[in-house]
Structure formats: structure tokens, C-alpha cells
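anyone seen this seq b4? input:
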Amino acid sequence: MFGHDLITPNLHPRPYYPSEVVRIVNSKQFKLYIANGIYPIDIYTGMDRKTGKTILVMIFLKEETKEAYELWCKYELEEDTI
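predicted toks r here
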């Protein structure tokens, strides 16, 4: 129909409970998560309370981000670390 290979998206949205997810607004952090193959299950915009500007909020599953978060806290998370 389109003449090219079908691409499977990395995002696989699904319903979730607030207790099973983390909300990441730090763009460096969520970019590093994605660079390590950890993809968000939801994305939406919010408002920065300090600046009043629109921000991007990425929703990740806690169980998938545990190792990356530990490395992030130790300033050791880089591209392709995990």
C-alpha cells in the first residue's frame, strides 16, 4: 500500500495505576532513559509551577526504570549504559 516496510512504534500505551508509574519532567533524564531503551507509556503536557511555562511530562513504569533511576541518582547514567 505505501511501498515501505511497516514500522513498529516504541510507545505502547496502556491503562496504568498511579502507583506503578513515575512522572519524569527532566528532559535530560527522560532522554537518557529512552537512549537506554526504556520508553514511556504515556506523554502529556503540564505546567511548570515555578515558571508557568508548558513542560513535557513522560510517564514510565517503575519496574522498567529502577536500574536507570539508581544510575541517574549516582550521576552514572549515560547513553547505552544499560
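The CA atoms of residues 22 and 73 lie 15 Å apart. The mean pLDDT is 91. kinda curious what u guys think
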